[in-house]
UniProtKB/TrEMBL annotation:
Pfam families membership: Glyco_hydro_1 (PF00232)
Biological process (GO), any one: carbohydrate metabolic process
Protein family according to the UniProt entry: Belongs to the glycosyl hydrolase 1 family.
UniProt keyword annotation of Transmembrane present: no
Official protein name in the record: Glycoside hydrolase family 1 protein
InterPro entries tied to this protein: GH, GH_1_N_CS, Glyco_hydro_1
Keywords: Glycosidase, Hydrolase
Stretches assigned to coiled coil: none
Family matches, as Gene3D superfamilies: Glycosidases
A GO molecular-function descriptor: beta-glucosidase activity
């Protein structure tokens, strides 16, 4: 009994999963759909270079990875029309919270022109969650933007803060009575790095000046959104979802220690330090461990996902302990893996949650966990082949099938216990 008590999560803990509009809704037109049409053929040609050489258990065939249609989101999971069905599944899996995003391009398809039918759609989405006693966590921006904004420079444009603030005020005013938890920006530094440093996403530029400008815009966007939301509803809770990496040194030589300090400042805490006074909580997305041995990414990779990402549950504890310094509630807004065979997901969920519980026992104020993702979905420039879902989606029939690991997670959600 004493041992069991140590493994209990706090009363009122939020259990659920997360989705993003562009990745699951389908049937939309935004900056990503335009980019997909322009780049699908190129992406299909490139993928042959990274076909699962790291994980020998992977059984996807080359034709699937090389098919250009894999890189076109199209109707995705058709969650736009099937959200009630999907929330029934979430309820069946004992989720009491769900993180989703609102698609800006649906709300404001033309500059300054808002679509009231789409606003009503998201009201119905929230009502469907509430009817099932599932707490909505609404994300205002999760990587995708209207086409008209991209034509004005996107997040690198001079007036993007004004445009974003106008959208935020419109949608928050409409939805505020039903939404307590708001997430302003998802993974700002993933977006800035992949668009403006590596050149893999959207802008496809390697421009440090633009990178810095967009980063600054994401800081200001959060600060303005925070003010708008608090004006609409002073009781609302507002934060951002920040990707954080567990940096580890292999040997305590001064060079490794210096690299760790740089990595943590640059990759982990720079954004949080700039918004911490205008955030009610910290949203934390965990996927990556980075072992430093004279340089970055010298990981041992004893266990990896289908994407070749190292599975290192211990890193979640390390980051949570670091986040304690902010003295704010923490929500694990994403944590998951691509695992088509569902061979490692249950293990990974349980081990990450054990590490979350360990941090809670050490005084860290963790209040919720959202597995990524509820559904298999469209994984941006990687397309459909990575399978992150608790629920398997047949992309030909759109049939949903609950995975075994989802049932194991459901028991944890039900019992508030690991």
């Amino acid at each position: 009994m004493k041992n069991n008590q140590k493994q209990k999560f706090p009363h009122g803990f939020y259990w659920g999963a997360a989705t993003a509009a562009h990745q699951v809704e389908g049937g939309n037109k935004n900056d990503w759909t335009k980019w997909e049409e322009q780049n699908a053929q190129r992406l299909a040609g490139k993928k042959e270079k990274i076909v699962f050489t790291i994980d020998p258990t992977k059984d996807y065939s080359d034709p699937e990875v090389k098919n250009p249609s894999n890189y076109i989101s199209s109707i995705a999971c058709d969650h736009y029309n099937r959200f009630a069905e999907d929330f029934d599944i979430a309820k069946k899996l004992n989720h009491n919270a769900h993180r989703f995003s609102i698609e800006w391009s649906r709300i404001e398809p033309e500059e300054g022109k808002f679509d009231e039918r789409e606003i009503e759609h998201y009201k119905q989405v929230i009502e469907a969650l509430k009817d099932r006693n599932i707490e909505p966590f609404a994300t205002l921006w999760h990587f995708s933007s209207p086409v008209w904004l991209s034509e004005k420079g996107g997040w690198n444009g001079q007036r993007v803060i004004m445009y974003f603030s106008r959208y935020v005020e419109k949608i928050v005013t409409a939805l505020s009575p039903q939404v307590k938890f708001w997430i302003t920006i998802n993974e700002p530094q993933i977006y800035t790095a992949l668009c403006y440093l590596t050149g893999e996403w959207l802008a496809q530029k390697k421009n440090p000046v633009a990178h810095h400008r967009v980063f600054s815009h994401f800081v200001e966007a959060h600060l303005q959104a925070y003010k708008i939301i608090k004006k609409c509803n002073p009781q609302a809770k507002v934060g951002a979802a920040k990707n954080l990496i567990d940096f580890e040194v292999a040997g305590n030589n001064p060079w490794n220690i210096l690299l760790k300090k740089i990595g943590r400042w640059w990759g982990d805490y720079r954004y949080l330090d700039l918004i911490k006074n205008d955030a009610d909580f910290i949203g934390f997305n965990y996927y990556f461990h980075n072992r430093i041995n004279w340089w970055f990414n010298r990981n041992e990779n004893k266990k990896v996902s289908d994407l070749g990402w190292e599975l290192y549950p211990e890193g979640l504890y390390n980051i949570l302990m670091d986040l304690k310094k902010y003295n704010k509630p923490i929500y694990i807004t994403e944590s998951g893996l691509a695992d088509a065979k569902d061979a490692k997901r249950e293990w990974y969920i349980k081990e990450t949650l054990k590490n979350a519980q360990k941090a809670i026992s050490s005084g860290v104020d963790v209040r919720g966990h959202f597995y990524w993702s509820l559904l298999d979905n469209f994984e941006w420039n990687k397309g459909f082949w990575p399978r992150f879902g608790l629920v398997e989606v047949n992309y030909k029939t759109l049939e949903r099938k609950i995975r075994k690991s989802a049932l194991a997670y459901a028991e944890i959600c039900k019992n508030n216990f690991i």
